[in-house]
Every structure is written in structure tokens, then in C-alpha cells.
């Protein structure tokens, strides 16, 4: 019901040409509506042909929002490395603080965003909080996940994505707050599912028209989301209150301690870390890392499991490489990565083929811009069409095929980076969890494939490589048998 309502509104809306030096191709909202509806199937067929017609830069005008869609990797890189293109759409309705302003990293812009981003990047890079490293936190989850899969015996597992989500939420929660749950802990389940539900379900609507929630709070699903945000914020607030009581200056146990220390040190009234505002930014940043970090990594891993069971010869090559490095006598560690070109190629191809963030996260232009002869007014929203770039036949040979070897040298011994592969986006706002995400993908995938043969369950649903319609692309239901190969 909700979607067909959206489609009707979009189809009735008018396209409009704006004054420009070069003349814009404006795309009808009928097409855009189709794009919203079929995000998940954009990979193949007609829609991409349509895009070829519109060219690398086209414009959508709808209601109060101007949007430019960029489908060329060079253009995305040029634009996103320019600070003038580093703004964000106004998402204050989704902010955990709900005081009519935005906080944290993902939705802010300007000096506070820069300050928080710099601090968080440094913490993630230098990470070695408390008793262990980030790798230790991830490996605890890898082992518990493997134990859970082993307990299933040879029964089909139909909730692969959920298992990865719980494991990733837990690893991130431990890094941020030092608290670790069991993967079947009720509190963890609640935290993982409630907060995401509404936002992910409403996917395309919110992505394209965040302002619609003010006009149709119930229809757009906003009322439900708001309740979830309030509940989730209480959850985020708890460890902050506890950490304030127990923290010691000499030793940062986790990200929350490090952030609170920064708040204590800050005297500049304009800083993002000052006093109460600092605390609100801490709560929002904890939320940002949760939302940006767990669903993305979990979805990518579930795609990889699906590819591995659909292409047993790829699984076999992957397992052979793991064995050649570990003798299957120990778990893999991040330091093995450099010696595992096939694994790197498999991860790269998984990121390309799944393109879980097909349009990255929209940017906003902070002041009027002239780009390649086009006039782009302040507040225009820029969408990087990563999905198109990752399947562009001008860049990739046989893009529709899942083929890790495209990222290897001809002798198969060296991993070759490709500058058109930008699943973490690029430039000033490039994903700040990229290296954590890459470590997680590597550790989960290699240790699971070392332990199990992964077999597609022919009695379960088979939706090919179609994805659910959601903010993050995630595979449609499938089930898999994990056969212990080391028992
Ligand atoms: C496979 C996993 C992941 C993918 C594909 C991914 C992808 C992305 C993309 C496309 C963006 C938008 C960049 C832009 O606006 O141009 C982004 C932003 C972001 N990501 Fe990730 N991400 C992943 C995992 C993570 C993890 C593990 C974390 C942290 C724990 C994280 C934290 C963030 C944050 C905080 C931002 C906002 C950056 C900003 O606005 O300055 N991501 N990510």
C-alpha cells in the first residue's frame, strides 16, 4: 500500500529544467519511482540501459528537493573530494536527540562533523582499548558464531543474515562500550532489531524524501521510527551514564571512555565536545557507529555466503588458500591477509557484486557550484550511483558474472586493486569504518570457510541474487547447510 502511494505521488510530480550553463538532462519521476521500487533489481537489464541514455550526470526535480545523480566514477571522485560537496540532507527527524538539530557524524556537516569524524577515525585507527584489540573483539564473535553453526549440525540455517547482524552488533558494542553480550542475549536481540526495523523498511521513501515524514508521519512510517529512536537512545545513554561514574583518566577502556575524556579536556565553547553538547554528540556517534557499521557488514557477509554456496568451485579455491596459510590448524588472523590474494579478490568481488549501499549516502552541496559547465545550486542533493559504476560495462568485462579472478594478476598470485570499486564511497565523507569493516569481512569469511563446507539448501527458497528493497541491499531469504569439514 505504502509503496503504491509513493509511486502515484512521484508519477504525478512534474519534472523541471533549471537555469544552467550546460543543459541538464532531467529525468521523469516515473523513472525515479521505478528506481526507488527496483533498487534491488537494478543489477540487471533494462534499467541500466535507461541510465546509459541519461548519461553520467542527470537531474531530478521534485518538490522542495533538487537531486543530481552521478554515474561516472571520475566525476564522483572529483565532486566528493571537494569540501563544497560534503554536506548532508537534513535528517534531524532521525537524530537520536530529537531537539530539532543534528548530532554525531553521519548526518552533520561543517566544523562539528569534521571534529567528530577526525576524533573517531583516530580512535578506530589507534584502537587498543582496555584489555584487547579490535581483532580480539571480532574474533570472540567469530568463534561464538561458529559454535552456533556447529550446533545446527546439518540442519538448514535460514537466518544467516540475522546471525551475522548479532555478531557484528555485539563486536561494535564491545568496542564502543566495553560491554559484550552472548549472541542469544535478549537485550542484544532487542537492540539489533527494534532500532533498525522501521528505518530499513521505509528504505527508498526516506532516502529520497526525508521531508515527507512531516507531511505524512504515520503513512511514511515515521511514528513507528520515532518510538524506536527514543527507545534506542535510552539504550545508548545507559553506558554513558555508567562510564561517567567509573572512568579513570589514565586508562581508556573503550571508545566511550576516550570520548568522555575529550569532553573533560574541552574548554572551547564552539567545540563539538563541549559540555552537554559533547555528551549528546557522544550518544549520536555511538548510534552512528551502530547503524553504519553492523547492518552493512552483516549484509555483505550474507551475500558472500550466498555466492560461496552458489559457486562451489570458488568456495573450494578459497578454502585451499586458507589451508595453504594456516594448515587448518589455527584460525586466520588479520596479518594473514597480505598473503591471501584470492581471498582479497573474493572480498573485492563480493563488495562489487552486492553493492549493498547502491547510492552511498546522499551528499548536499554547501554553496553554488560550477561543475563541468553545469550549474549546481546550493542545497542540491548529490547521489553517487555506485551500483551503476560497479556494473558499468565500459569499465568491467562481463560485469554480470561473479568472478573474483578479475581482481587477480594473470598468474593469480597478486591482488589487483581497481579504482572503480568504491563500495565505501570516496573523498571527504568516505566510510570511516572501512578498515574495521575489511577486517571483519576477512575474519568472519575465512574462519567460517575454513571450518565449513557451505551448501545451498535446495529445499529452501531460491531467489537468485535478488535483494530485499531496503536502505541497505540484503539478499532475499535463502537457507544453507554448514557441514563441519574439520570435525
Ligand atoms: C561492508 C561494510 C560497509 C560498507 C559497504 C560501508 C559503506 C559506506 C558508505 C557508502 C558510506 C557513505 C559515504 C559517503 O557519504 O560518501 C559510509 C559512511 C559511513 N560509514 Fe560505512 N560502510 C561499511 C561499514 C562501516 C563500519 C564497520 C563502520 C563503523 C563502525 C562504518 C561507519 C561509517 C560512518 C560513521 C559513515 C559516515 C561518514 C561521514 O558521514 O563522514 N561503516 N559507509
Account of the 3D structure:
The protein has 16 helices and 11 strands. The chain has 487 residues and is of the alpha+beta class. The protein has one domain (2-484): Orthogonal Bundle (Cytochrome p450). The strands form 4 sheets. Strands 1-2-3-7-4 form a 5-stranded mixed beta sheet. Strands 5-6 form a two-stranded antiparallel ribbon. The termini are far apart. Bound molecules: protoporphyrin IX containing FE (HEM). Protoporphyrin IX containing FE binds at residues 80, 105-106, 117, 172, 288-289, 292-293, 296-297, 300, 356-357, 360-361, 363, 423-425, 429-433, 436-437.
Note the main attributes of this structure:
487 residues, 8% strand, two-stranded antiparallel sheet, disordered N terminus, single chain, binds protoporphyrin IX containing FE, Cytochrome p450, alpha+beta
At a glance:
The protein has 487 residues and is of the alpha+beta class. The chain has 16 helices and eleven strands. α8 packs across α10 and α12 crosses α14.
The percentage of residues in β strands lies in 5-15%
Average pLDDT confidence is 86
CATH superfamily annotation? Cytochrome P450
Tally of extended strands? 11
For the record, give the distance between the C-alpha atoms at the N and C termini, rounded to a whole number.
Answer: 50 Å
The domain tally reads 1
Helix content: 40-55%
Structural class: alpha+beta
Q: How many H/I helices?
A: 16
Q: What is CATH's topology name?
A: Cytochrome p450
Q: Which shape, going by the Cα principal axes?
A: globular
Radius of gyration: 22 Å
Query: Briefly, what CATH class?
Result: Mainly Alpha
Q: What small ligands are held by the chains?
A: protoporphyrin IX containing FE
- Strand order within the widest sheet? 1-2-3-7-4
H/E element sequence: HEHHEEHHHHHHHHHHHEEEEHHEEEE
Unreliable runs, pLDDT <50, ≥5 residues?
1-20, 37-47
GO molecular function, one term: oxidoreductase activity, acting on paired donors, with incorporation or reduction of molecular oxygen, reduced flavin or flavoprotein as one donor, and incorporation of one atom of oxygen
Organism: Folsomia candida (Springtail)
Pfam families: p450
Family: Belongs to the cytochrome P450 family.
Amino acid at each position: 500500500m505504502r509503496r503504491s502511494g509513493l509511486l502515484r505521488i512521484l508519477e504525478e510530480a512534474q519534472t523541471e529544467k533549471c537555469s544552467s550553463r550546460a543543459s541538464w538532462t532531467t529525468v521523469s519521476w516515473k523513472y525515479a519511482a521505478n528506481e526507488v521500487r527496483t533498487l534491488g533489481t537494478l543489477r540487471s537489464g533494462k534499467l541500466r540501459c535507461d541510465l546509459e541514455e541519461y548519461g553520467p550526470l542527470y537531474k531530478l526535480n521534485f518538490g522542495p528537493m533538487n537531486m543530481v545523480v552521478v554515474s561516472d566514477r571520475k566525476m564522483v571522485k572529483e565532486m566528493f573530494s571537494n569540501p563544497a560537496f560534503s554536506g548532508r540532507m537534513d535528517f534531524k527527524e532521525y537524530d537520536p536527540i530529537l531537539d530539532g538539530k543534528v548530532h554525531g557524524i553521519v548526518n552533520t556537516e561543517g566544523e562539528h562533523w569534521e571534529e567528530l569524524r577526525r576524533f573517531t577515525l583516530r580512535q578506530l585507527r589507534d584502537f587498543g582499548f582496555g584489555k584487547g584489540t579490535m581483532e580480539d573483539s571480532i574474533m570472540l564473535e567469530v568463534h561464538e558464531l561458529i559454535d552456533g553453526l556447529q550446533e545446527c549440525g546439518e540442519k538448514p540455517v535460514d537466518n544467516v543474515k540475522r546471525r551475522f547482524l548479532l555478531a557484528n552488533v555485539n563486536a561494535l558494542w564491545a568496542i564502543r562500550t566495553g560491554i559484550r553480550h552472548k549472541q542469544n542475549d535478549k537485550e542484544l536481540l532487542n537492540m539489533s532489531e527494534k532500532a533498525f526495523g522501521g528505518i530499513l523498511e521505509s528504505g527508498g521513501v526516506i532516502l529520497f524524501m526525508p521531508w515527507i515524514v512531516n507531511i505524512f508521519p504515520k503513512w511514511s512510517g515515521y511514528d513507528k521510527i520515532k518510538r524506536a529512536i527514543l527507545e534506542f537512545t535510552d539504550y545508548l545513554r545507559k553506558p554513558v551514564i555508567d562510564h561517567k561514574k567509573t572512568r579513570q583518566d589514565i586508562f581508556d577502556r573503550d571508545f566511550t571512555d576516550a570520548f568522555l575524556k575529550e569532553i573533560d579536556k574541552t574548554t572551547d565553547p564552539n567545540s563539538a565536545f563541549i559540555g552537554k553538547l559533547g555528551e549528546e554528540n557522544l550518544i549520536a556517534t555511538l548510534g552512528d557507529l551502530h547503524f553504519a557499521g553492523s547492518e552493512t557488514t552483516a549484509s555483505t557477509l550474507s551475500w558472500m555466503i550466498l555466492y560461496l554456496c552458489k559457486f562451489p568451485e570458488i568456495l573450494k579455491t578459497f578454502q585451499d588458500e586458507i589451508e595453504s596459510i594456516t594448515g587448518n590448524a589455527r584460525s586466520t588472523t588479520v596479518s594473514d591477509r597480505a598473503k591471501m590474494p584470492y581471498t582479497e579478490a573474493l572480498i573485492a568481488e563480493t563488495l562489487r557484486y552486492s553493492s549493498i549501499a547502491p547510492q552511498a549516502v546522499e551528499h548536499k552541496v554547501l554553496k553554488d557550484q560550477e561543475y563541468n559547465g553545469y550549474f549546481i545550486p546550493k542545497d542540491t542533493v548529490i547521489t553517487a550511483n555506485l551500483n551503476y559504476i560497479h556494473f558499468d560495462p565500459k569499465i568491467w568485462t562481463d560485469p554480470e558474472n561473479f568472478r573474483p579472478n578479475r581482481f587477480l594478476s594473470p598468474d593469480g598470485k597478486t591482488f589487483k586493486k581497481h579504482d572503480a570499486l568504491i563500495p565505501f564511497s570516496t573523498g571527504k565523507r568516505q566510510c570511516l569504518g572501512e578498515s574495521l569493516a575489511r577486517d571483519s569481512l576477512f575474519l568472519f569469511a575465512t574462519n567460517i570457510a575454513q571450518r565449513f563446507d557451505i551448501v545451498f539448501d535446495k529445499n529452501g527458497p531460491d531467489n537468485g541474487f535478488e535483494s530485499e528493497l531496503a536502505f541497505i541491499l540484503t539478499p532475499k531469504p535463502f537457507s544453507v547447510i554448514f557441514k563441519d569439514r574439520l570435525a
